[in-house]
C-alpha cells in the first residue's frame, strides 16, 4: 500500500475516503487512534493508504476535486 494523503483534519480524511470508495478504490486510514497517545489535540497527522495499482487514479481523483496532496515520492 502507498500513502495517498496525510492530514490533521479528520473531515478531509473522511471526505477523501468516501470519494475513493465511491469510485471503487479501496483505501485504509492509518494512525486514526493516535489521538489517545497525543491527548486528543490533533497534532499527529493521519494517513490514507491505497493499493499501488490504484495510486495514480486516486491522485487524479483527489486533484480533480481540490484535495491538496503533498508529493510523497
From TrEMBL:
Limits of the DUF2007 domain: 1-65
Any matching Pfam family: DUF2007
Alphabetized InterPro entries for the sequence: DUF2007, N-reg_PII-like_a/b
Listed name of the protein: DUF2007 domain-containing protein
Lineage of the organism: Bacteria, Pseudomonadati, Pseudomonadota, Alphaproteobacteria, Rhodobacterales
Amino acid at each position: 500500500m502507498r500513502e495517498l494523503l496525510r492530514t490533521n483534519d479528520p473531515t478531509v480524511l473522511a471526505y477523501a475516503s468516501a470519494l475513493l470508495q465511491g469510485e471503487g478504490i479501496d483505501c485504509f486510514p492509518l494512525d486514526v487512534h493516535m489521538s489517545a497517545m497525543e491527548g486528543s489535540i490533533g497534532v499527529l497527522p493521519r494517513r490514507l493508504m491505497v493499493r499501488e495499482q490504484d495510486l495514480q487514479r486516486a491522485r487524479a481523483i483527489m486533484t480533480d476535486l481540490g484535495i491538496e496532496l503533498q508529493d510523497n515520492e
